Amino acid sequence: DAGVIQSPRHEVTEMGQEVTLRCKPISGHDYLFWYRQTMMRGLELLIYFNNNVPIDDSGMPEDRFSAKMPNASFSTLKIQPSEPRDSAVYFCASSFGGGSNQPQHFGDGTRLSIL
Amino acid sequence: GENVEQHPSTLSVQEGDSAVIKCTYSDSASNYFPWYKQELGKRPQLIIDIRSNVGEKKDQRIAVTLNKTAKHFSLHITETQPEDSAVYFCAASPHTPWGSQGNLIFGKGTKLSVKP
After folding, report:
1. pLDDT tens-digit map of B81-103
2. Distances from the Cα of A64 to the Cαs of A60, A72, A75, A77, B68, in angstroms?
3. Which of B96, B101, B106 sits opposite A42 (nearest CB)?
């Protein structure tokens, strides 16, 4: 089992640039979650999908953030334009069937730095 | 919505001692409570979970207890070892209006340090 795969592992870019984070969930998992982790705010849920459909995006901070899941094996989180306060570690997680009653498996995260 | 409070924020123990981390939640409809361990620079990893129809669960040196009436749950680590040093997160699954309980609300984390 390859686990949840995220790319890139690290991203450094200047403010105003577009940033795209990628996630491949565990095969067969039907829930996919995007989290942001900072020292100040801890682990925050941004958005989650069930069967490729966004279920709750209330955690997305503002219109600069968007997420898509075009198929069961791929999701993107995009920030456009990026700002220094977006600097954080972004985690993708996936789970199977029922979400909350099954463990969420996390990827290794993308450490994003906006200069 | 659901709110999860976690205490303490930092905990330092001597190797071999026990460590206890406590969490409270607000949504009485929550029914799944996992605990994650996150080592520095790494991803959160599930170490144990408990569902609302169970009061206690053990896995070797780790145990979790749940009190639904009081809406709190705790992580107990016995015979701590230096490799237990990490940040531990509790979480709860809130009720959602869509009838599907997919997400987790995390506590702010407890940094556990085990001194040799």
Report:
1. 999 999 999 999 876 555 455 67
2. 9, 24, 17, 10, 39
3. B106
